[in-house]
Amino acid sequence: MIWSGLIECGSKRRSRARRIVAITLGLAVGMGLTGSYAEVNQPVFPSARGDQCVEPVDVMRRDHFEFLKHQRDKTVHEGIRTPRHSLAGCIDCHADKDPQGRFLPVNAKGQFCQSCHVYTAVKIDCFSCHAARPSERVSQSP
Ligand code: HEC
Ligand code: HEC
Ligand code: HEC
Prior knowledge:
6 helices
């Protein structure tokens, strides 16, 4: 259902790429490549915590990296810290847990950031410096 939204969603610019992603991911799940999901009808990546994203979902699909880069420049170059587009915030809401209740890194196989990027051949180096899962303090909350 997430992916049908993805296919229909706005931007003409990337819609073809998205359709390819959707189809590829659908096949991947069908073939059981994302082994952590028992049912093929599960969303391809884990759903997020919270009621909504920091921007409308279609905007996030299209422009999330612009927000991140802008936020990084603000913080690193100007020393301005705001929570709205913080990378740590993305991780807090989008990291899933394993069956033991421990957070999984968002860049691990089948996880939120990775599952989408792997099929679009997007490589990000962010997590060589930034934590890919919420801090322990957060992980103790439900
Ligand atoms: C070489 C290490 C390094 C890499 C690689 C890196 N960052 Fe950062 N990033 C930093 C440091 C250091 C800060 C400043 C941290 C602070 O002062 O809070 C920062 C701050 C940020 C911030 C602002 C703080 C926040 O959480 O909102 C964002 C957003 C951000 N980086 C995004 C990214 C993204 C996206 C990537 C990958 C494309 C990336 N960074 C790759 C080191 C790195
Ligand atoms: C307060 C929690 C929260 C924060 C913080 C957050 N998100 Fe989200 N995000 C959501 C929810 C809820 C959705 C709706 C889809 C879902 O339920 O999984 C979503 C959807 C998305 C989607 C679309 C996924 C799809 O279905 O195709 C992307 C991409 C995304 N977020 C990226 C980010 C990035 C990047 C950040 C950090 C800048 C971020 N999010 C911060 C909660 C959050
Ligand atoms: C719905 C699929 C999807 C999800 C989920 C997703 N991304 Fe992306 N991301 C993309 C696509 C597609 C691109 C490439 C867009 C382009 O270049 O046109 C991209 C590009 C990026 C880039 C820029 C890479 C570059 O080389 O400039 C960053 C940074 C990034 N994503 C961070 C994240 C983070 C962090 C998360 C998880 C919190 C995330 N993305 C989740 C689809 C996704």
